[in-house]
Amino acid sequence: MTTVKSSPTLLDALAERGQTRPRPWGWLAAGIWLFYLAQPLQQMVKHSHSVERVVGIGALLLFALCYLSFFVWIRQVGLKAGQLPVLQRLAYLGVMLILTLAMVPAAGQTALTALVYITAVGMMALQLPVAVAVTLVLLGGAELAMRLVPGWTEDSSYGFAIFLGALAVFGMQRAIQRSVELAVAREDFAELAVQEERNRFARDLHDILGHSLTVITVKAELAQRLIAANPDRAASEVADVEQLARSALADVRAAVAGYRELSLAGELVAAHAALQAADIRAELPNTVDEVPEEYRELFAWVVREGVTNVIRHSGAKKCTIRLNADQIEVLDDGKGPGPGGGASGHGLIGLRERADQAGASLSVGKSPDDGFRLAVRVVP
């Protein structure tokens, strides 16, 4: 059974959720918040001393670069960097703090805006007790500076912004951790379901074969003893052994057939759950009534194989399944067929064999959304 460890930092939580591919431009979402630095930038532009103005603007640009670089690193390298020493993380925050202090001569009190960004990065990169300590130091430092630095005024908005920034990142960390735990729970449920099905099938085979093989063994031993003394009775016992063996074989075949039989409606329900877990929007039919009974098992195999390929290989955001009386299509908006047309793989080979046996044709190609299309059509 899969276990999930407690994630003391947002980086660790993202690492546990590392199977989810990060969006390549997701760091821009963090960059949007840099517009709050417009206030200190405006103050610097108005500053009379040219050297202090140049130093302040340069420090602000480097600060913004450090902030954005942190999120780029999270999405590329940081997902696997859970072992990064705490001192290195603190040093990164120290560099951002030094740049903030470099803004003060030109930006004045408005440079305190940068402390909100340092708080957010600290809450992401550090364990909660250390992050809270850093947040309190920054909050206390801002409040003291407003009271002690000549010309500065008391403004509660800076402290309130620092507090809200820390609280927002803390909430994000908890949300990601809950999603990790939910994904692990789903995996555990799936593993338990598979194990239960294996146990059920093992019990069925034991019940089917246990009695029959025991009786066959007893009658075979009896026939062996009677061959010389009573040939007619021995022949009768051998005939019984043959009949029992045929009966046991028929029971095993029936059990295996029942084990492999699929339900189209059940596969659609399972496909919806699997696509939802993979964060892929699903557009599925609400009913299978128009599909003839004799085609439903084949179409169910198409749903299983098609959705599996969408989740594993396509990189899609949407999956659509279309049904009618003689055709099923599985379409996505992912990267589309490979150089060989996308018709390789054991799953598709097996599906083509099933389609041939049912008198149907299988086709693969590009979907209208430039993704992958898998279709099976029953030949009249």
Automatic annotation (TrEMBL):
Residues 197-261 form the Signal transduction histidine kinase subgroup 3 dimerisation and phosphoacceptor domain. It comes from the Bacteria. The chain crosses the membrane at residues 54-74, 86-107, 114-138, 158-176. Keywords: Kinase, Membrane, Transferase, Transmembrane, Transmembrane helix, Two-component regulatory system. One of its GO terms (cellular component) is membrane. InterPro entries: HATPase_C_sf, Sensor_HK_TwoCompSys, Sig_transdc_His_kin_sub3_dim/P. GO terms for molecular function: phosphorelay sensor kinase activity; protein dimerization activity. This is Two-component system sensor histidine kinase DesK. It comes from Kribbella caucasensis. The lineage of its organism: Bacteria, Bacillati, Actinomycetota, Actinomycetes, Propionibacteriales.
